[in-house]
């Protein structure tokens, strides 16, 4: 019984560590306002809240093509130019798209971890008791 409790506690601690890492990753800061359009007067897509990985990939591909064309045009004209889209550097848009795509993956991971956590609590009532005792001890030590 004690071995099962130890294993359950070990697994629970791993789940908590992964949840903590996810929380840190979720706090990525966007460099743009996130309001993307394919043209200056086109429909707006908020990449911060977009739920489709495919749409994020399509926007990224559009920006890659735009960046390549600007580089080629500047080279042929013999000038330097900033590579921007809608007033923000294309590199910033690309970083923001990476954050947005990462957040979509994180949401799935988070749901799986929450399910694992609940399962561990149901499987081992002793673990639940141990966790409650640890929470009480922690609260008491912090209130000194």
List keywords for this structure.
elongated; single chain; two-stranded antiparallel sheet; 144 residues; 4 helices; mainly alpha
Shape: elongated
* Strand line-up of the largest beta sheet: 1-2
Biggest sheet statistics: 2 strands, antiparallel
- Structural category: mainly alpha
Q: How much helix is in the residues?
A: over 70%
Average pLDDT, all residues: 86
Radius of gyration equals 23 Å
Number of domains: 1
Could you tell me the strand content as a percent range? 5-15%
> In whole angstroms, how far apart are the ends?
35 Å
Q: Low-confidence parts lasting 5 or more residues at pLDDT below 50?
A: none
How many β-strand runs? Answer: 4
Report on the structure:
The chain has helices at 2-26, 53-77, 90-123, 125-142; strands spanning 35-36, 45-46, 84-85, 88-89. The protein is mainly alpha-helical and 144 residues long. The strands form two sheets. A two-stranded antiparallel sheet has the order 1-2. Strands 3-4 form a two-stranded antiparallel sheet. Helix 1 runs antiparallel to helix 3, helix 2 packs antiparallel against helix 3 and helix 3 packs across helix 4 (125-142). The radius of gyration is 23 Å and the shape is elongated. The protein starts with a helix and ends with a helix.
